[in-house]
Design brief:
This protein has helices spanning 2-8, 13-34, 44-63, 69-80, 88-94, 103-126, 131-140, 142-156, 162-173, 175-187, 199-223, 228-238, 245-253, 257-284. It has one domain (2-185, 194-284): Na+/H+ antiporter like fold, CATH 1.20.1530.20. The longest helix has 28 residues, at 257-284. Helix 2 runs parallel beside helix 8 and helix 4 (69-80) packs parallel to helix 14 (257-284). By secondary structure, it is an all-alpha fold. 75% of the residues lie in helices and 0% in strands.
Length: 285
């Protein structure tokens, strides 16, 4: 729909992206984290998911050299940052039959990975490298501030008045469709893997996300001797495509925009055969 709209109407894509970044996504993250059980952060499946993501984050910059630091950070995120919200929730619900399985990954990504990634992007693009700026940058980011506030509500058990909680939740519900529309708008007038784009870096990120990450997750889960259903779950969740959130981060800091746009699109297509293959292999075992 976003792509079709982009063909006939001229929309300020950057302005819509900032609306999501500053208002819609923070409301969504606050609502999700405030209702979450933070105790799920201390579990073996989450340890496997974290380790698999870290392996991809570490391998990508070693494989892809000669690019600017911002592009390498965005590429690393493309290879290991899972679309746990927009695609993970329906997959967890209809394939794994338990939507709660994806919640620990959402919390990990927004509480740990996102602050680290945004701080690194801030440093390499803006040039702030002092200890004070490193500590202050995450707190100045609306996404991280929303997660911290949501975590405080979850830990303390505070119940917000309906007059406050309902508007926040309603605004947050707009984040998913608007993010997807912005992504579709960004595709208009662009050619996938166009000449001059960083094809090798993009393909490497897609392979890392849809093949390497689930393989690493399966290997780690097997080494820890997790139950078969838990091993299946972490492998499936590791094979999810790159999150659209990374596109927002890239847009915010003008780093690796073409790479992440193509990586999100291609990994979303590639995850279908990847997940079917995972399901087939598990039914054969």
């Amino acid at each position: 729909m976003g792509w079709l709209v982009g063909r006939w109407v001229e929309f300020p894509v950057a302005a819509l992206g900032r609306l999501v970044y500053l208002v819609l996504a923070p409301c969504l993250l606050f609502t999700v984290v405030a209702k979450a059980d933070l105790g799920v952060l201390f579990s073996e499946p989450l340890l496997v998911s974290t380790a698999a993501a870290c392996v991809c984050f570490a391998l990508y910059p070693l494989i892809i050299r000669g690019r600017d630091k911002g592009t390498r950070i965005v590429g690393a995120l493309a290879g290991g940052y899972t679309n746990a919200n927009y695609i993970g929730l329906p997959i967890a619900t209809y394939v794994l039959h338990d939507a709660a399985l994806v919640v620990p990954i959402v919390i990990l990504q927004v509480l740990v990975i996102t602050p680290v990634a945004l701080t690194m992007l801030e440093i390499v693009t803006v040039g702030r490298a002092s200890v004070r700026s490193v500590l202050a940058t995450p707190l100045q980011n609306p996404l991280i501030a929303a997660v911290i506030l949501g975590a405080l509500v979850a830990v303390t058990g505070v119940r917000l008045p309906t007059v406050v909680a309902d508007p926040i939740a309603t605004v947050g519900e707009a984040a998913v469709p608007v993010v997807l529309l912005v992504f579709g708008l960004s595709l208009h007038g662009q050619r996938l893997l166009a000449p001059g784009s960083d094809r090798v870096a993009t393909i490497a990120a897609v392979v890392m996300k849809t093949a390497v990450m689930p393989a690493v997750a399966f290997g780690l889960a097997s080494a820890l001797r997790l139950p078969n259903h838990a091993t299946y779950a972490v492998t499936v969740l590791a094979g999810l495509p790159t999150a659209q959130n990374v596109f927002l981060y890239a847009q915010r800091f003008s780093a690796g925009l073409v790479l992440i746009r193509d990586a999100i699109f291609l990994s979303t297509l590639a995850c279908v055969p990847a997940l079917l293959l995972i399901a087939y292999l598990f039914t054969r075992s």
